[in-house]
Structure formats: C-alpha cells, structure tokens
Amino acid sequence: MPLGSLTSALTSDPDLRVLAFTATVSIASGIFFGSAPALQTAHPNIASTLREQAAIVASSSAQVMYRKVLVVVQVAPSLAPDWG
Length: 84
What we know:
Elements: H1 3-9, H2 16-42, H3 46-57, H4 61-79
C-alpha cells in the first residue's frame, strides 16, 4: 500500500458531523435519564419518609451495633498501612 494514500485517509482534523452527533446524543441522554430522578424529587412523599426515619431512630440497639460494626469493617482496610 503506498504511503501517500494512507496519509490522506487518516487525518487528525475534527469532523463536525461526528461532534454534532456526539453532542446531540449526550444532551438527549442527559435529559432522558435525568428527568426521572428530577420528577421523583419534585413530588416527595413526606409522610412515608418521616415514618421510615422514625423507624430507624427507634430501631433496636442490636441493629445499631450491627451497623456500626459493618462501618468499621468497611473503613478499617482503607486505613491499614501498606506493607507491600
């Protein structure tokens, strides 16, 4: 394959059609996938949220201790020194 034909086919110039397509797809997907969480937060169900939070506060001490142990188990490896 001659070198001249290869360099003319491969250029580093930006293609505006590809840029426009990529920008359009990015914006459309951002709007599409961002609209569901936005609609959910626009109409919160305050009563059920308060009930859930009250249940968490009133939970037994064994559940609270279990949660604290899980947090310690998750955080401890990140604080361990690197012996390698």
